[in-house]
Amino acid sequence: MNVVLEINADRLLEDLKRLRTFGAAGPGVVRLALSSIDIESRNWLAGRMTEAGLDAMVDGVGTVFGRSRKSGPVLLIGSHTDTQPTGGWLDGAMGVIYGLEIARALSESDDLSHLAVDVASWIDEEGTFSAFLGSRSFVGQRVEESIRSAQNREGLRLQDALERAGLSGRPRVRLEAARHRAYLEPHIEQGGRLENAGKSIGVVATIVGIHEVRLRFTGQRNHAGTTPLSIRRDAGAALVCFIQRMNEAFRQLADADTVWTVGRIELDPGSLSVVPGQADMHLQFRDANTTRLHAMEVKLTELVRDFNAEGGVSVQLARLSEPEEPVTMNAELRAHVARAADAVAPGQWMQMPSGASHDAQVIAPHLPSCMVFVPSIGGISHDFIEDTNEEDIVRGCRVAGLAAVSILKELWGTPS
User: Considering Cα of 140, then 141, then 147, then 150, what sign does the dihedral take?
Assistant: First the structure.
């Protein structure tokens, strides 16, 4: 690649650190979607987009959208700026500020100023009210029912939160097929693969699928002191036994990228002096391979069937949500990102799956999409101590910027 896009590292980091102050909590950030501090940050971000020469707005669901005034095919760059309840300062936010900096850098270039980038901060990627609300609205999914019925943990309705923020009734940004030709989402990795491999850039091939289920074990409550083990119908003990069998079975199906997590266990009544009569476990498993995910579903069903055949404690399997199937990033766009990575960080990049969900998985079925990762220190994210070295942040923006130029020049018919 012989194109050079001059990224202003100081400006990039300054904006990231300024955004960090909205909801700062020690080294981390608490900026839940549509909270007062989130709305304040969105108005600030819209102002920065306007200063960068974009026509910026906060739309009717809370997405901040900066629209280029340039003609021609447009590359959309975005991510999210809302956080988890104990959030890090870079999760999502970095990708949005990358988009802002790339839009500015293009405008400042004599040779590249005609190239158009729109920038988005999608609302509620983290699911405070309704996960991926902004990107789902953008691609035309029906979000009206979510707006009417979704609530946060405190019971505040999404509809009321939008009204309180003064957003209800505003127009919503929508994908324009003739205008928007590709989507790029830069992000921190949120895991430890890059760091462990000694690499500084990840080119995302696939966003993993996610299946979530609940298993309910039903036995019989009884006195913990007077009921011999031989006649107990202990739902808690049955749950533990089942997990061991499940782990052994899943290991036979898994590869190095397969993960599963028992994220919640609830015992009823939860007393030291009562044999549990009911035990629930919430299970999530993720993989980039659709066939393997379905094989895990089948194996889980078989394990439940065999467990029930033994008698004593029964188990029922139920879905917690509709499965999310793996989403493959566009091969041509990935090639642009890979070439940019090789130009900026030769030998220091790798192809990899994303083990986390992203707005790109919502947008990809409607618009060719790609992602680029930078390392997370210690592989930690969704925590206040989430961090990335500044040199990796700047390097990632240079890769994303070079990829953006390459993608746009090809859309213009003048590839690098």
Answer: negative
